[in-house]
């Protein structure tokens, strides 16, 4: 038996590329976006009472990694990208039905739009459902996960030359915490875990409408080189 689902809205996100998106929600509080709801869910009735909620669960589609053939095993970045485990033991984007879930902060509610932060969703992500976070039921204090028992260790981030000034100017123009966004995302080291780049290799990614470029001058350190219009 098959079922059909349809998006209730789409996310307008600071993340324009999959690269450098935090691998879990809440790891980058400065990551912000807006969920734009579709009719009939863009009416005030659909969100009545949601202003009393601080966080919500989003069920969504990994729309850029949908696959026809299901995977039984995946290689999570957390395990170095070379160790395989069962798909249901991971949160890999390669899901049997392409469904993801994230708990995110709800900053503002208005008919047709939900303003979110702490997101880990790519721009244009289709959202299938919204559920309020219920602390007494959703927070399991005795829970454990031996595969991921703590947040990834952050690496050092430093700004070179005029890069910080560039980021601050773009932050003022955008009205977004761009400096914090860049630092929070890059401190998690977005490169593949098995990759050891040469110091001169340059990396880049787009946040909002700016391109951020950096390199790894030494192990455990990211140096930001420039923040320029994309």
TrEMBL record:
Keywords: Methyltransferase, S-adenosyl-L-methionine, Transferase. Residues 5-142 form the TsaA-like domain. It holds the Pfam family TrmO_C. One of its GO terms (biological process) is methylation. It comes from the Bacteria. PANTHER family: TRNA (ADENINE(37)-N6)-METHYLTRANSFERASE (PTHR12818). This is tRNA (N6-threonylcarbamoyladenosine(37)-N6)-methyltransferase TrmO. The gene is tsaA.
């Amino acid at each position: 038996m098959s079922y059909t689902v349809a998006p209730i809205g789409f996310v307008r996100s600071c993340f324009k590329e999959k690269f450098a998106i935090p691998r879990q929600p809440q790891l980058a509080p400065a990551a912000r976006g807006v969920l734009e709801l579709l009719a009939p869910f863009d009416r005030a009735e659909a969100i009545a009472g949601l202003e009393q909620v601080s966080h919500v669960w989003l069920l969504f589609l990994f729309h850029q990694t949908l696959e026809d053939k299901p995977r039984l095993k995946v290689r999570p970045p957390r395990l170095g990208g070379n160790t395989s485990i069962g798909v249901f033991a991971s949160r890999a984007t390669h899901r049997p039905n392409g469904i993801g879930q994230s708990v995110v902060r709800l900053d503002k509610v208005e008919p047709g739009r939900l303003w979110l932060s702490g997101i880990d969703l790519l721009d244009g992500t289709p959202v299938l459902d919204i559920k309020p976070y219920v602390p007494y039921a959703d927070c399991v204090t005795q829970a454990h996960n031996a595969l991921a028992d703590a947040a990834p260790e952050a690496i050092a981030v430093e700004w070179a030359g005029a890069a910080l000034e560039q980021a601050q100017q773009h932050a003022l123009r955008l009205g977004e915490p761009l400096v914090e966004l860049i630092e929070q995302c890059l401190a998690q080291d977005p490169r593949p875990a098995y990759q050891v780049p040469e110091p001169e290799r340059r990396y880049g990614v787009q946040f909002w409408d700016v391109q951020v470029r950096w390199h790894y001058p030494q192990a455990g350190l990211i140096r930001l080189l420039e923040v320029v219009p994309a």
